[in-house]
Specification:
binds 5'-O-[(L-methionyl)-sulphamoyl]adenosine; 15 strands; alpha/beta; 23 helices; 13% strand; single chain
Amino acid sequence: MKPYYVTTPIYYVNDRPHIGHCYTTLLADVVARFQRLVRGAPTPDGPDASATPEAVFFLTGTDEHADKVSTAAAERGLTPLEWADQNAEAFERSFEDLGFSHDDFIRTTQDRHTAKVPGYLRELVKAGDVYKGDYVGWYDEGQEEYVPENEAREHNYTSPISGKPLVKRTEQNYFFRLSAYADWLRERIESDAGFIRPEARRNEVLGRIKQGLNDVPISRAIGDTPPDKVWGVLMPDDPEHRVYVWIDALFNYLTAVDEDGRRAYWPAEVHMIGKDILWFHAVIWPCMLHALEKSGALKERFGDALVPGCIYAHGWWISEGRKMSKSMGNFIDLAQLKAYADRYSLDALRWYLVTQGPLGATDADFAHAKFVEVYNADLANGIGNSASRVANMIAKYFGGEVPASLSELSSGEPALRSTDSWVALAEHCKRVSSKVTYALQSLDLTETTELGQSIVAEVDRAINAERPFSLAKEVFKLPHPESSTEFRFLAAILSGYAEALRIASVLLSPVMPEKMAELWRNWNCAPPPGATLEDLCTFGGQHALKPGQAIVKGEALFMRADPDEPKPGAGD
Ligand code: MSP
């Protein structure tokens, strides 16, 4: 087993965290939490953990060497680093508030990054993949990137992202020989359907490669800035140039693990990104890594394979049906997200973002009415209600203790076995847990959430069909209820419902870690450290609810929400 490595983009430190940053990081968080479960490494390993085969490493951070950082700092009378420090801290704090389980947070201004980038570039120069030349192009100052001529023309020489005018620039630059890798990249993408996901993004990249790839500039001249005042990383062996901020940033994924104890994490299993930064991640980055791979320069440290397993590019959030904009008043910033978390719980917010978000090719709308609808249907009336119903019945009829042993039942009376819903539930759980592993391999988070929910739905269906509350009425009318077959039947089906919900809670926990931990505390069934998803999801297996084990009713996990209540505001 190779240790698992998942990354997010590193965020521009000039901006304040908003739904876009939080969403990409949330998806990576869910993937990391699932993988820890799959591998039996349930807690974040933290920055000191070494890359043991079952370890999971989840990296996020900030991209700090953009020109706009030094401009904004100057406007405030600060050094770029002082300004970057403030904003990087805001990102780190927000990510902690949102409960993300990253193992490390990298900043491109840290020595561990800046000290290593020139080394990789030196290897590319040595291998003949980097050369010096003239570049003339249309520069998007907001995005810190050049826009290809055809795209610039199409957008009337304004930024396709911000709409601001593009600036014509001529520069002497170092170029990466991207054109030399077009065929390799096309073949790589064509031969591996999972390399660029989802499929629409894969097709988009293939379409663009077919138009041909030009070499790309990877440096900027520093002009008359003294080298010690340069905001960025200098090119190796040429202090007149600094590394282009995008190239500097991409290397963060590698620098973070290029140290003793961590190298086995490389190559990353998945780079989680948004669709707007697909080109850099799906074209330039793999080709640069392949060039390094070919040169053999990093072989001793990282082995033969350097290209990541998957680039997953999600779509964008819009808000209340329109593109988000600060001036339109529909911008979902951190304060707005926190207001949702405060009113409905952080896990409800996570659930909404993951299940209703733009995981696929189309954008998704953050709409208050939809939030409340999903919250009530999936959470308050879903897992929340189902868990309360089952815990209430166990409290009422069996003094709050799991009444039957599921492993004993399976070897018990045929009369019980053939009629019990737990047999069907056990089979359903078995099917679900094998499908989850498959869904995770293809990063199909929608499927994983649906599978977890399908168990809750099965339990509800069984309760409605078997009506245990009516059965209980009859049972307790009997002179010696406890020695009756009906009593044992009631015990069996209730234990089966509870066991199925335990398994559902494990599957739902990567998206809703806090609420599921609350359920586990009440039901005394927290997964022990090191337990694997497969074992945890075995119905009646080693982690099953045990007879006599206390099930505390606790408070409702999710209170029903009033659809007429106005949306939570930042001032709530
Ligand atoms: N610094 C670069 C990334 C360098 S990675 C080597 C960058 N940073 S960013 O701050 O602009 O954040 C990018 C991430 O936020 C992307 O994944 C992007 O898709 C995401 N989002 C920004 N706005 C978004 C939405 N409205 N909706 C969803 N995600 C969006 O690009």
